[in-house]
């Protein structure tokens, strides 16, 4: 059986990993005024977007995911012919309508694939399953890494589906925003209260960075740390601890909205990398997606692991 993987462009994965595992990416259009740029996880386009849009203080970009006929035109023929079964993982449904759109598209696929496969000489039925990752960015990506590992190991489809059901509720995503002015501007545009504005001004003066955790679709602050580097170090320390306790999948996935070389020099990352190597855990990193940058701002760090129940310390 030919198994395919489909993710939206908000899913942070290294480009070589996407290419090596034949992962198909659903583009995400982003509007800036009367212009539109499409996030297709192209490294050059992503860096230009950060430099020329987010890096210049633009806070009015909005995300407008594809749906309906647009998804059909992009993927219906290719998926129906290239694969027998497609597994799709989307960014958390609580934060985006992409999951709902992909579910509708999967139903459309089932009603329209037969003549396409017959014309291409492909035998047998086609099926598609859509999972809500219930997480964001690098944490969505770590689920795809496990999915790819299972497919490479020729795991039966029923077991793959069962495994994805198991890991989704055990996936932890950690996020440290860097540009609080950016987040403040977007919150203010959505009616932030005066009391919240005062709180933001104080946090900005003290350079307090919130450490956000996304778990089972809910995002909350689990710490406030003075300075971005110190917040990143706290995340690295917590992930290192979970590696030592034993992760539920052998991957740590990170993404950063800036130059990764600078991130890798921060305190705590080298220890994380050495600990992962000792425990047979792969560490992957990529540039934060354009869609994620619109959501959490430039310079943000996101980390994803599938782990035993734990608290952030």
Number of domains as seen in the coordinates = 2
Q: How do the SSEs run, as a string of H and E?
A: EHEEEHEHEHEHHEHHEEHEHHEHE
Shape estimate: globular
Count of beta strands? 13
Sequence stretches where pLDDT stays below 50 over 5 or more residues:
192-202
Major sheet attributes: 6 strands, mixed
Structural class: alpha/beta
User: What is the CATH class designation of the largest domain?
Assistant: Alpha Beta
Tell me the strand percentage band: 15-25%
CATH architecture of the largest domain: 3-Layer(aba) Sandwich
Write out the strand line-up for the largest beta sheet, numbering strands in chain order: 10-9-8-13-11-12
- Helix count from the secondary structure assignment: 12
- The averaged pLDDT comes out at 93
**Distance separating the two termini:** 44 Å
Name the quaternary structure.
Answer: single chain
Radius of gyration: 20 Å
Could you say what the CATH topology of the largest domain is called? Answer: Rossmann fold
- The helix content is 40-55%
